[in-house]
Amino acid sequence: MGRVAGKVALVTGAARGQGRSNAVRLAEEGADVVILDSCKDVDTVAYPLATTDDLAETHRLVEATGRRCLSRVVDVRDQAALDLLVSDAVDEFGHLDIVSANAGIVSFTPTWHLSDEEWQNVIDVNLTGVFHTVRAVVPRMIEQGTGGAIVLTSSVAAIRASRNLGHYAASKGGVVSLMRTLSNELGEHGIRVNTLNPGTVRTDMIENDAMYRIYRPDLESPTQADIVDHCRRRNELDVPWVEAVDISNALVWLASDEARYVTGVVLPIDAGLLAKA
Ligand SMILES: NC(=O)c1ccc[n+]([C@@H]2O[C@H](COP(=O)([O-])OP(=O)(O)OC[C@H]3O[C@@H](n4cnc5c(N)ncnc54)[C@H](O)[C@@H]3O)[C@@H](O)[C@H]2O)c1
Q1: Strands 32-37, 191-198: parallel, antiparallel or unpaired by DSSP?
Q2: How far is CA 133 from CA 76, 151, 215, in A?
Q3: Which CATH superfamily is domain 8-202+244-260 in?
Q4: Which residue's CA is the closest to the ligand 1 atom numbered 17?
Q5: Of all helices (H) and strands (E), which one includes residue 148?
Q6: pLDDT band (50, 70, 90) for residue 6
Q7: Looking at 168, 212, 215, 261, which residue is catalytic?
Q8: Alpha helices in the chain (DSSP H)
Q9: Contact yes or no for 11/34 (Cβ under 8 A)
Q10: How confident is the model over 60-102, as pLDDT tens digits?
């Protein structure tokens, strides 16, 4: 018997990375999964975002577990498209119990050099996109009257100072504040709301040439091998990063009845990055 057996989960930004891993782990634990991704690059983001092929692959992986999947290209900045997907998902699967608001982007610029566009893109996707997701699902979850779990993906950047990430840290700090308000508002409905705060996670957000150059500006063409030591030194545990599945395992726990009395919590999964003296 899976730990979220019989539940229906929605995962945003699910075409790859943590979102894909979240979708597959929830399916492995018995949930049917609704997945969405914008599958479109953003001008102010220096690495490519996911593709429709990536989204199709997540769909295939979810179905390979034996669970049902509904997938669609949706941008979390588009409230109407989110509302329609949630409505279609409830028509198809009957209910919605778990939400992983995971879609996100990053870029690195000193705060006073940020253009309006770069600032706004990060706030729109990472913070307003989470708000839109919540606004699409909460009325349904309240109406069902069976409680639920909403897990918002924040970051250690919400807690710890990080140069060149003013916009990103503001968005992820906003997500934590939103979570606290929601956990307050939704407790009476049995809906728990928590954040996951990943440290460095080995996904395409980190594994790309632009990021390697940010970590190693001293090298002309740095590769992943050149950033391992830098990343390892940031962590208390002797690893450079965590894997997407480490985040997903925490998500499964938060989404399951094992965490039935856990709400309003900020949960770092960071190999001790925040604990490091
Ligand atoms: N990788 C890390 O080190 C790290 C650390 C802390 C927090 N995070 C957060 O974890 C989450 C997942 O990131 P990841 O590491 O899997 O990176 P990723 O780039 O592999 O995945 C992000 C996904 O979100 C999708 N996406 C982007 N904008 C979207 C939009 N407007 N609408 C819908 N989908 C959109 C992308 O296409 C992509 O599939 C993000 O919120 C990120 O900020 C990542």
Answers
A1: unpaired
A2: 7, 11, 32
A3: NAD(P)-binding Rossmann-like Domain (3.40.50.720)
A4: 205
A5: strand 148-153
A6: very high
A7: 168
A8: 17-28, 52-64, 79-93, 116-122, 129-144, 166-186, 209-215, 224-234, 244-255
A9: yes
A10: 999 999 999 999 999 999 999 999 999 999 999 999 999 999 9
Segment 154-165 mean pLDDT = 96
55, two tokens: 């989204």
The packing angle between helices 52-64 and 17-28, to 10°, is 20
Distance between CA atoms of 277 and 267, rounded to whole angstroms?
19
Mutate to test the pocket of ligand 1, among 121, 203, 230, 274 (most ligand atoms within 8 A of CB): 203
- Ligand 1 centroid to Cα of residue 265, in Å, is 21
Say how many Å lie between the CA of residue 21 and the centre of ligand 1.
12
**DSSP one-letter string for 62-84:** HHHTT--EEEEE--TT-HHHHHH
Determine whether 47 is an active site residue. Answer: no
* Residue at token pair 């699409």: 136
pLDDT at 1: 79
Give distance in angstroms: CA of 56 to centre of ligand 1. Answer: 17
Residues of the chain with CATH 3.40.50.720: 8-202+244-260
Instruction: Flag whether pLDDT at 277 surpasses 80.
Output: no
Section 250-277 average pLDDT: 97
DSSP code per residue over 216-252: -TTSSS--HHHHHHHHHHH-SSS-S-B-HHHHHHHHH
Ligand 1 pocket list (CB less than 6 A): 12-13, 15-19, 37-38, 49-50, 75-77, 102-106, 125, 129, 153, 155, 198, 200-201, 203-206
Which residue has 């599958």 as its token pair? 39
